[in-house]
Write a structure and sequence with these properties.
The protein has 8 helices and no strands. Helices cover 82% and strands 0% of the residues. Helix 3 runs parallel beside helix 7 and helix 4 runs parallel beside helix 6. By secondary structure, the chain is mainly alpha-helical.
């Protein structure tokens, strides 16, 4: 059994992931060590130089940000569990739709990092009006890009699930047809929710650039676990929508998060502009 495990595809995939993570750290250390602006921070570094006040500031910013991601990832993990409780075909369809929507979501993740950096830079210069323009430009760019992906999902929702299945196996034709039917419907929901998913993560990036993380942490908890999860659970377990109902719950959670986070950003930046104009 042990040697069989080491020869399995699961172990190979896990090993590849571990190696890639290690190489990422090595590569980042190499870049930092060879960058003229950054390598001075690594020269003769000692843990004695680390100050408690700086550690506290990092934790105050990092912990709420980590919780925001935890709430969202846990919701999608729960969706996998709910889909599995409906049967293997529902779980397979859920996984297909999740892989596709997660792939397009990576673009929004990149824009989220850009949003955090650009907004944080503008905040450091006290250019709050420019900050708002930068952030809204990134929000609009996210909506445009995610809308293109949404259109692709709408147009090819019946075709994309075929890419994940062995359609030549006649013994699986019944299961495959059911998986394709479910997955194609999930992609219709995913086409809409990925727009909101992209917006919420880019707005979160902008709020992190403003170093506003605690209130967004509460917002994401409410949106995902007090709005999204109950809807997913009820529609998935107690209605005929089943897997589609689970994803409608995800859509509700993500759209609520996008709306509430944008309201938070708009109010916070408006206040910053007023305070800066009074100085």
């Amino acid at each position: 059994m042990v040697f069989g495990f080491f020869q399995s595809w699961g172990f190979k995939a896990a090993l590849g992931t571990v190696i890639s993570r290690i190489m990422m750290v090595v590569f980042m250390h190499f870049l930092l060590n060879n960058d003229e602006l950054l390598k001075k921070y690594l020269h003769k570094f000692s843990f004695k130089e680390v100050r408690k006040s700086m550690l506290k500031k990092i934790i105050d910013l990092g912990f709420p940000s980590a919780m925001q991601m935890l709430f969202e990832v846990a919701l999608f993990t729960t969706a996998i569990w709910l889909s599995g409780s409906l049967g293997k075909n529902s779980q397979a369809a859920n996984q297909i739709a999740l892989i596709l929507s997660s792939s397009t979501f990576m673009v929004a993740m990149g824009l989220s990092v850009a949003s955090m950096i650009r907004v944080g830079y503008a905040k450091g210069l006290n250019k709050y009006k420019d900050l708002i323009i930068i952030a809204r430009s990134l929000f609009l760019l996210t909506i445009i890009i995610e809308s293109v992906f949404a259109l692709l999902f709408l147009v090819f929702h019946n075709f994309l699930p075929h890419l994940f299945l062995n359609m030549t196996d006649v013994t699986e034709i019944v299961d495959n047809n059911e998986i394709i039917w479910i997955a194609s419907r999930l992609l219709l929901v995913a086409a809409v929710f990925q727009i909101f998913d992209g917006v919420q993560v880019v707005v979160l990036g902008a709020l992190r650039g403003l170093q506003d993380v605690k209130i967004p942490m509460y917002i994401t908890f409410i949106a995902y676990w007090l709005i999204g999860f109950p809807i997913s659970f009820y529609l998935g377990k107690y209605t005929d929508l089943k897997a589609i109902g689970i994803w409608i719950g995800l859509l509700a959670g993500l759209s609520s998060a996008a709306l509430f986070l944008y309201i938070r950003f708009a109010r916070l930046t408006k206040r910053l502009v007023l305070e800066n104009s009074m100085k």
